[in-house]
Amino acid sequence: MPGTEPMRAAARSITRRGPGLRTRLTLLATALVAAVSGLLLWLGWMLVGNVVAAVPRLPAGTPVRVGGVDVPAELLGEALRNSARHQVLLVGGFAFVAVVLAAALLAWTVTGRVLRPLHDVTEAARRLSAESLDERIALSGPRDEVARLADTFDAMLDRLQAAFDSQRRFVANASHELRTPLSVIRTELDVTLSDPNADEAELRRMADVVREATARAERLVEALLLLARTEGVELAVREPVDLTELVGRALRAVEPEARQRGLRIKCCEEPAFAVGDPALLERVAGNLLENAVRHNVAGGWVEITTGSDPQWTTLRVASSGPRIPGDQVETLFEPFRRAGIQRTARNGAGLGLSIVQAATQAHNGRVWAEALPTGGLAVTVQLQVAP
Question: Would residue 248 count as lying in a domain?
Fold first, then answer.
C-alpha cells in the first residue's frame, strides 16, 4: 500500500529513540539516590561493627547472655558486632527501599512539572503549519531556561510568519504583474483577429503592442530571476570595484531618456572603491539611476555622489520628483512597490529597489532611503571599503 513503508520507517525511528527525557531523568535521580543510600548503609554497617568490636574484654568463663543465648565471655565482642550489624542491615534495608521509592516518585513528579512547558512547545510545533503561524506559546511563569526557549521559539515563529506573508505578497504581486502584459497580448490578438477587415497597418500596430508587452514580461521575468538569485546567497566573486566607474556606465545607458526629459545630472568624479561582485554592483548603480530618471519630473535634477571612509564606501543617488510621504519610504524596498505610480504603469516592474536591497545585503552592506523635503527621493548604499 503506498505510503505504508515510510510510515513504518518513521515508526521504527520513533521506537528506537528509547525512553523519554522524563523517564531518563527519573532513572538517573533514582540511581544517584540509591548509590548514596547504599554507600551510607555500608558506612553505617562498618561503623557499627567497629564500635561494637571495641567492647572491653571480660574474664574468661564469665557467663554472658545476649539475646536470650548464653555466650562465652571471649566471644562477646563478635556476638555483639554481628547482632548490631544484623540490626543495621534489617532497619537500613527498609529505609533504603523507602528512600529509593520516595526519590523515584519525587523525581517523576518534579521532572513532569519542569518538563510540562517543553510539552507545550512540542505540541505547538506539531500544530504549526503555513496556515497557523499566528499561534504563539506565550509561556508565563519564572523566566528560566525553558521560558527562554519558549520565547526563542515565539521569535522564530514571528520571523517565519513575516517570511511567509512576504512570500504570499510576492507571489500575488508577481502573478498580477505577469497577468497585465499577457492580458494586453491576448486582448490585442482577439480584437485584431476578430476584425475581418484588418489591414496591414492594423496588424503592424497589433504587432508593436504585442512586442512591447512581451518585452515588459521578459524584463519582469529577468528581474524576478535576478532577485531570486540575489536574496540570501553568498557572493561568488569578491574583488575591488570602482563605484564611480560603474556609475559612469549606468549613466550612459540612461542619458538618452534623461536628455529627452530635460534632466540636469550632476555626477561624481573621484574614485570610490568597494569590495564585491562587479556585475551585481553595476546592477545596483543601474537600478538607482533608472529609478532616478524614470520617476523624476520634466526639467528635474539628479545628483550622484560617492565617497569613502576607513570602513565604508558610499554611493548616494538623489533626484527630484513627486513628494513621498515619510511613512511610505521603507515600503519602496518591497517588491512591486512604486511611489505614486499605478500597478498598470509601463515604466518599470517595481523591483528596482528590491534588487538593490538584496544585492547590498549580499555584500554585507547597508541601504536606506529618505524623502526629500522639496519632493523626490535619495537612496544611499554603503559597502565595505576596498583595502
Answer: yes
Sheet holding 377-384, edge to edge: 264-266, 301-308, 312-319, 377-384, 366-371
When pLDDT is cut at 50, 70 and 90, the band that residue 127 belongs to is confident
Q: In this structure, are 107 and 226 located in the same domain?
A: no
**Which has the closest alpha carbon to 206: 194, 189, 182, 183?**
189
The residue to which cell 512576504 is assigned? 166
Both 187 and 266 in a single domain? no
CATH of the domain at 226: 1.10.287.130
Q: What is the pTM assigned to this prediction?
A: 0.54
* Dist CA 111 CA 359 (whole Å): 49
Domain total of the chain:
3
- Report the alpha-carbon distance of residue 185 to residue 222 in Å, rounded: 19
Q: In percent, how much of the chain has pLDDT > 70?
A: 75
Q: Is the dihedral of CA 62, 65, 70, 72 positive or negative?
A: negative
pLDDT digits (tens, 9 = 90+) for 227-254: 666 665 566 678 898 999 989 888 888 8
Phi, psi torsion values for 302, nearest 5 degrees: -135, 130
